[in-house]
Specification:
Length: 374
């Protein structure tokens, strides 16, 4: 059963490194965002950062809610696409913030998917050594994963997310109405992170998703809100225990990298033409095969996860050759002392480190999901 709240808003409390904030999830929440910010922060001005596609759809709605609460705003937009997560685009945003005289106590509001969340989050983390950021995620990827946890990043020519900072938001507002306009491919891709959260931390949540495949695919609002709530709760718990992925005991925040070590190499090998979640789904399937061979994962458990990903229609339209992924894995930033180190599930809801799997074992696992050769 879904726990109903009097006003129809679901909420998750996050507390990370002394920063306490809430994730609020519900239909129509953009409208009340101005009031919420006004109640939290003294500033009477704000800067919304968005991409042009999202701004055209929702910029006005968010802007009106700010004005209604007595907060003046400026809307800065960047081109859609991960290429905007760059130092060059960040520099243009700094120029605009300078022109606006955006002050230290004034919030930046990130309105968009994970690209906008990372870019606006990084700009907010660094402008005047840090101004408040409010995350308003509009994709499944961002609502399920990127908006919570405080990681912000820009891409560098030599790799994705290489420039970054930790900067926790003051508030996360997920207006589930926004997800209605997301295309099917983006909607499904973000669900890969939901499967990831269940596999690494919550087997009961995996059961729940198996039972809710139909309503998730048809975007039933109450089910989508509950899906996001459970994901944010898992992410909040993992991040609260290990904000900076430096846990000395156990796996810590690195658990969230399940599927991403191989997934990032697949993204790069495919020339970044796959959605992040599509590459992560392939990465998870390869890492599950690895887990079955090296970490005692039961074959039936791997089958369940594969079936759930298929049911949620997380499918990559192209697959790069395994050989290209193998060579890129040598350059992953999660290698330690040149040895590949991955997080793999030992069962559903439990993870462990896997150190330096042999190239033969690794290749077999990757060829489970990608064509041989390359
Ligand atoms: N910081 C983190 O913890 C974290 C976690 C996961 C992913 N990420 C980052 O997130 C990014 C991927 O996020 P994404 O998949 O949301 O991509 P995205 O932000 O590029 O959005 C995908 C596309 O959907 C469009 N869009 C967004 N919201 C829409 C809506 N409501 N209706 C219609 N169209 C909409 C965008 O314009 C874009 O074209 C990557 O850069 C990744 O590195 C960060
Ligand atoms: Zn991810």
């Amino acid at each position: 059963m879904i726990p109903p709240m009097a006003d129809g808003v679901l909420s998750v409390a996050v507390e990370v490194a002394g920063h306490a904030y809430r994730v609020e999830i519900g239909a129509g929440l953009l409208a009340g965002t101005g009031e919420r910010i006004r109640a939290m922060l003294p500033a009477r001005r704000a800067t919304i950062i968005s991409d042009r596609a999202v701004a055209a759809l929702y910029g006005e709605r968010l802007g009106q809610s700010l004005l209604a609460a007595g907060i003046e705003y400026s809307l800065l937009t960047v081109p859609p696409g991960d290429a905007s997560k760059s130092l060059a685009v960040a520099a243009e945003l700094y120029d605009e913030l300078a022109l606006l005289r955006h002050a230290r106590d004034e919030p930046v509001i990130a309105l968009g998917g994970g690209m906008v969340g990372d870019l606006a989050g990084f700009v907010a983390a660094t402008w005047m050594r840090g101004v408040p950021v409010i995350q308003c995620p509009t994709t499944t990827e961002a609502a399920i994963d990127a908006a919570v946890g405080g990681k912000t990043a820009l891409n560098h020519a030599s790799g994705k997310n290489l420039i970054g900072a930790f900067h926790q938001p003051r508030l996360v507002r997920v207006d589930t109405d926004c997800l209605a306009t997301l295309d099917d491919r983006d909607f499904a891709a973000g669900l890969a992170e939901s499967v990831k959260h269940a596999v690494v931390a919550d087997a009961v949540f995996l059961d729940w998703q198996e039972q809710q495949v139909e309503p998730i695919n048809s975007r039933r609002p109450d089910i989508i809100a509950e899906l996001i709530r459970r994901n944010c709760a898992i992410k909040a718990a993992v991040v609260a225990a290990d904000e900076r992925e430096t846990s000395a005991q156990g796996v810590g925040r690195a658990a969230l990298n399940f599927g991403h070590t191989i997934g990032h190499a697949i993204e790069a090998a495919a020339g970044y033409r796959l959605r992040h979640g599509e590459a992560v789904a392939l990465g998870m399937r390869a890492e599950l095969a690895l887990a079955e061979e090296c970490a005692g994962l039961r074959p039936g458990d791997r089958g369940r996860v594969e079936q759930l990903l298929a049911g949620l229609r997380v499918a990559a339209p192209e697959r790069p050759p395994a050989g290209r992924v193998m060579s890129l894995l040598g350059h992953d930033k999660k290698t330690r002392g040149g040895r590949l180190r991955l997080v793999v599930p030992s069962g559903l809801g439990a993870v462990q480190w896997l150190e330096a799997p042999s190239p033969e074992v690794l290749r077999r696992a990757i060829e489970h999901v990608l064509p041989a050769g390359g």
